[in-house]
Amino acid sequence: MSLVDSALDAGEREAIALAIDLHASLVLIDDSKGRYEAELLHVPQTGTLGVLVMASERSLIDLRSTLSRLRQTSFFVSEKLIQRLLNQHPNL
Q1: What Å distances lie between residue 83 and 56, 68, 79, CA to CA?
Q2: N or C: which terminus of the chain has fewer CB atoms within 10 Å of its end residue's CB?
Q3: What pLDDT digit, counting tens, does each position of 7-64 carry?
Q4: CB-based contact 25:43 (threshold 8 Å)
Q5: Domain range summary for the chain, segments of one domain joined by +
């Protein structure tokens, strides 16, 4: 029996299962159902935006210009979420 909900997409299931097996400190999941499942299983998780914030905190990227470029791709993120992120991290 799998600990991970079989209704999840195969990618999210595998990512969570691997994170559990490896005792990973963090798993990258953008899908809200996958993030919810990871939370239920006490698997620390973040999404793409969280990774970008971490990279910006380490001076690896410029957050504002990276978010601007991200908006020009097929990656969906609401403008409200972008603004909230920038307001929470005004110095990045």
Answers
A1: 16, 12, 6
A2: N
A3: 888 889 999 999 999 999 999 999 889 999 999 999 999 999 999 999 999 999 999 9
A4: no
A5: 10-46, 48-88
